[in-house]
Write a sequence for this structure.
């Protein structure tokens, strides 16, 4: 009863902001167990503006299974008169249950240590595949604008990262590469971008870059080289690079940087080939190139690394592996064993989402071993597995919960940025020439000139909108038996941003101490995610 009283007093103190935001136009998808989707078209789309908390206050944004989408409230930082600054304890070694201040099952208590700082954050984003851009072009001009503004605009979720395939991938209408003809053309005399690039992808990319307020950093990945470079002369299956084309494949990457430069588009990073295991263990029936760690090491050390570093694109970051969590050590350690120079050439290690059944602590281990390499999450989607019953799960809150859960895991284990897969797909989760349909945060209904934002869109936004580039992760220590999933960062302006997820079927009361004496307390609805921006000044 005492708890309930305290909670109702706190709730009474929270004032709802009446803001200019356009609300989610909610649609019930009519499937039991699902949440709502938000409908956008040429004349309407929901928006979100970030409120700047005044000193001593905080702003909370809530999304939930029950249907809240970035719902705003504000509150004041409170002072606990029973505490003094001198209980400013060490951040570590505090998860001893005997010391927990609270052992109830619904009260959650954390202490945030703003001076214990970890990695800097690069940002968040999604991918401009052929499929995404083909779907986008199905919309009228005005609806296209609303879609891009939803992702990149100041009233959208302000993405600042994009990944693009170098030529085709499975999310294309047909398999293709650049310089397919003539065969054995090691000089790449016929390297031209595709009609998909000119008609779909580059316009979407240019519009995104124009819409964003800050620099959008682009990461480019090849899925397969032209098949004449490969041992199996096929786009899929068990096939590696023919040694006589190691340099040609490095040049294939350099040529892409040159082609985009002609469009005034700067590529921030390249990866060393998408999912290299797919061409070694050929279970994935789409565009691939197999690399063993030793082969990848030789190519990076002798070809790709020198080619990029000796070019005018010498600042381009190189991310190795670009594959699942459980393969990172195998590749990176194997590369180091074969040729340590290959490790010197890389700026970071890229990881995908589909092996997240192994613990995220793998990432921290890798960071400890290679403290100067960035960890970047370059691909994620829900519904990709053969055993996934539904490729697209309209309005699924569980999929949004998974996104939030794995982003929190990754960021708490040193990942600096997180790039979602297709920015938008059709209602079947395509097009995909290899029938590898998956889900996406936005689905496009071309005939109705309409698109819908799924819960996953808001899951991404809870991070991308509120954690700007240059923010830094800080220490969160648990002081209660009960938990919620959590992350805290400090922004360049000194504000603290906390992302919390309560994946439980009932509510949690969360007590967050930001210093020995100052705290905030709030109630987390069942199955909800909150981003809290605190101005501690
Ligand atoms: C260059 O590429 C285009 C497009 O694939 C192809 O039609 C053309 O035949 C190629 N040129 C040569 C000389 O192979
Ligand atoms: C990197 O490239 C720029 C031109 O883009 C050049 O001015 C600079 O000297 C190069 N740096 C190195 C270390 O080669």
């Amino acid at each position: 009863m005492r708890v309930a009283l305290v909670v109702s007093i706190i709730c009474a103190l929270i004032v709802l902001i009446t803001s200019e935001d356009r609300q989610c136009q909610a649609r019930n998808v009519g499937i039991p167990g699902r949440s709502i989707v938000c409908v956008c078209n040429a004349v309407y789309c929901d928006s979100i503006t970030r409120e700047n908390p005044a000193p001593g206050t905080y702003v909370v944004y809530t999304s939930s299974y029950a249907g809240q989408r970035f719902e705003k409230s504000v509150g004041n930082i409170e002072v606990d008169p029973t505490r003094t600054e001198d209980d400013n304890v060490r951040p570590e070694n505090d998860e001893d249950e005997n010391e927990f201040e609270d052992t109830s099952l619904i009260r959650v208590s954390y202490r945030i240590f703003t001076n214990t700082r970890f990695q800097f954050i690069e940002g968040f984003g999604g991918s401009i595949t052929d499929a995404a851009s083909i779907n986008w072009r199905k919309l009228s001009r005005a609806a296209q604008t609303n879609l891009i503004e939803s992702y990149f605009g100041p009233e959208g979720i302000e993405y600042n990262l994009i990944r693009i395939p170098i030529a085709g991938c499975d999310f294309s209408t047909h398999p293709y590469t650049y310089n397919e003809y003539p065969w054995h053309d090691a000089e790449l005399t016929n390297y031209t971008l595709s009609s998909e690039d000119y008609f779909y992808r580059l316009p979407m990319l240019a519009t995104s870059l124009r819409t964003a307020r800050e620099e959008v950093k682009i990461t480019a990945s090849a899925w397969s080289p032209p098949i004449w470079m490969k041992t199996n002369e096929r786009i899929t299956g068990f096939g590696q690079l023919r040694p006589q084309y190691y340099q040609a494949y490095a040049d294939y990457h350099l040529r892409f940087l040159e082609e985009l430069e002609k469009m005034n588009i700067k590529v921030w990073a390249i990866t060393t080939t998408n999912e290299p295991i797919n061409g070694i263990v050929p279970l994935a029936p789409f565009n691939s190139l197999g690399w063993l760690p030793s082969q990848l090491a030789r190519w990076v050390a002798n070809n790709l690394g020198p080619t990029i570093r000796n070019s005018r694109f010498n600042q381009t970051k190189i991310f190795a592996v670009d594959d699942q969590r459980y393969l990172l050590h195998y590749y990176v350690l194997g590369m180091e064993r074969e040729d340590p120079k290959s490790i010197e050439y890389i700026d970071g290690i890229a990881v995908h989402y589909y092996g997240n059944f192994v613990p995220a602590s793998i990432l921290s281990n890798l960071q400890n071993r290679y403290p100067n390499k960035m960890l970047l999450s370059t691909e994620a989607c829900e519904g990709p597995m053969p055993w996934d019953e539904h490729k697209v799960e309209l309005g699924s809150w569980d999929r949004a919960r998974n996104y939030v859960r794995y982003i929190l895991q990754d960021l708490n284990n040193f990942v600096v940025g997180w790039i979602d897969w297709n920015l938008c797909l059709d209602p079947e989760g395509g097009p995909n020439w290899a029938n590898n349909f998956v889900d996406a945060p936005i689905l496009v209904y071309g005939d109705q000139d309409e698109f819908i934002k799924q819960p996953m869109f808001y899951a991404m936004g809870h991070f991308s909108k509120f954690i700007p580039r240059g923010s830094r992760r800080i220490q969160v220590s648990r002081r209660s038996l009960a938990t919620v999933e959590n992350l805290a960062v400090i922004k360049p302006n000194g504000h603290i941003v906390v992302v919390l997820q309560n994946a439980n079927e009932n509510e949690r009361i969360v007590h967050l101490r930001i210093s020995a004496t100052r705290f905030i307390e709030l109630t987390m609805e069942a199955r909800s995610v909150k981003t809290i921006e605190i101005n501690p000044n």
